[in-house]
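Lab notebook page, bench 4
Experiment: in silico fold of construct C2
Operator: M.H.
Input chain length: 403 residues
Purpose: comparison with the prior construct
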Amino acid sequence: MQLVLPAYAELHCLSNFSFQRGASRPEELVQRAAELQYTALAITDECSVAGVVRAHVQARELGFKLLLGAEFAIKSLEGEPEVKLVVLVHDMEGWGNLCEFITAARGKAAKGSYEVSWDSSDFASLQHCEVLLVPPRGMTFDTLCAYCKRAKQLFDDRLWLALELWRSMDDDLWQQTLGEVCAATGVPLVAAGNVHMHVRSRKPLHDVITAVRLGKPVSECGFGLQPNAEAHLRSRMGLASLYSEAALKATQTIAARCNFCLDTLREHYRYPVESVLPALTPAQTLRHYTLEGARKRYPKGIPEQVQTQVNKELALIAELRYEMYFLTVHDIVRFARSENILCQGRGSAANSAVCYCLHVTEIDPERVNLLFERFISRERREPPDIDVDFEHQRREEVIQYIY
């Protein structure tokens, strides 16, 4: 009789972008999850989505489903143990919700840290997301129920209680306790791994980075180290021996609800609308600023050669719908120059007459033969890259303007 392995999606996984916690690169995690024939993998670094781009590139190459999310440690009330929330996005709206939530959490704390508490009003923004409540091992039944009821008020039927088993001596007792909590509160149970590495053999490296985080030699870390190497991407057969069929099946329900892909940003990226002039479209606004800049560049009249090049570029920019990108860069450069902050565009953007007329670059298209296709190509179908340098001493002013 052939053994049928359960379908599984890993929903709680840290990469090395969770500094001194994760021991594997995002692309390694995606590659391994695909080899194990998981249906999906979530990259959920701590209060960060910095690692998802590398994971996305690898997942796209493999044709593998990647879920995007983040993990948050919740600041406890007095006398209560700390719990974690894992947030997974459904769609474009959910991605925006998560990014705003991360920004708010980072803004409340010193640089390099974050703060999320149960009384935070920011939870209301996580409308298009699934949320996993991850309690610490050993929490009492009453406390668990209290946390579940509090979280259920915030997230309703998008809330799940994560069961994470690592072949510890108290696994059976913990699984029984969480099952009773689910029955008492109505919050469903879902299997998760709290993964920190893609393969078991990465455990020695994980011990080293843990020792660095604790500021001790590995030999003195004791219970600060993970007791075994179970926090890796495990085989589906191994998972089937630990988790119930219902807990594993729940991973598929969550994965089916989460369908956002970073490629969506290419078509639906939301640029600041303040850069568009009243009653004009983005294309009309870009043409207005380009011709206005061209008249300043050429006070004696715009050369026919330059006018032809500008028209050609504006037509292609409009066709590929890149107007808002140009307008946003123009707005940032305009601010810098208005504050006498030295700035200079460089790279392939120097092949653009539009960039010259917008005062982003300084290569006069009348004096050189432009290679505009190095900058934007219809066939390549990739957004242009406009690099702008700002003087070091005043760069923070520009960053604050962008914020």
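Observations: Residues 210 and 216 are 9 Å apart (CA to CA). The mean pLDDT is 92.
Next step: discuss at group meeting.
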